[in-house]
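The protein record quoted in full:

***
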Amino acid sequence: MRSLGIDVGVNKGLDLVLLGDDLSPVETRRRVPTDSLPKLISDLEPDVVAIDSPPSWGKNGGSRRTERELRAFGIQSYGTPSDPKKGENSFYAWMKTGFAAFEAASRCGFERFRSGRAKGKALEVFPHASAVVLAGCLPPQTVPKREWRSLVLRSQGVSVAGLRSADQVDAALAALTGVFALRGRYTSLGDPLEGVIVLPASALPARPYRRCRHERRRDGVQLHFPGLARCACGDPECTRMTGSEFAPGHDAKRKSALWKLARQGQEAIDELRRRGWEVPPEVG
């Protein structure tokens, strides 16, 4: 299972990251001209193509339903206008490049995704939104964008060592969203007739996302697992007093909490395995 993520640019060209089923970057490319994309897609043989761009102009007004629904979750995005004349503004040049990328994918047999199975389709994705959904919160205002998104990738088991720019980080987030979609763990917002943004989660929260809390450590910014205090003891301040990740004996509480979550989704299973802890027998 291979997912090709594409970050769209105007003057710089396209940035591509191909992720394998184990989330290892199989291939990375920078500054790819759009007219080279069909051959690259054929050569790389992905199962899904995830493009950081709308596939076409909107149907009505200055934004699409998918973008309005994202904003209701506190995730801001650019609006895709319905009037192509507005697209003559140089700001929208990147969208036109994205439209061309979708056309190139279509020529390779990857029709635009609207609903259903993701395999063999070209998905519209939004790396910022994917990072928010995977982290369970909006990025801290004090953390640079590339650092934040790289942290989110690492928290999902994706190596960022070979990603040489913020655009490649975004391409990797696009590819990761494609992997989630291939596994059937996705949500799509909006009207399928005008374009839907695919997000890497089977369900979204009932309320808008809050700003993520973080702390600076010697090894970087500490991410906190959505829905759990870092120590899982009910007091998020307890580890501040110990100077370590868990208060004495509280690692067992963390493990117990993760077992409960593991029965509901892959993220907790991934963390259990990352820590070398066994997973519940029924999901192992």
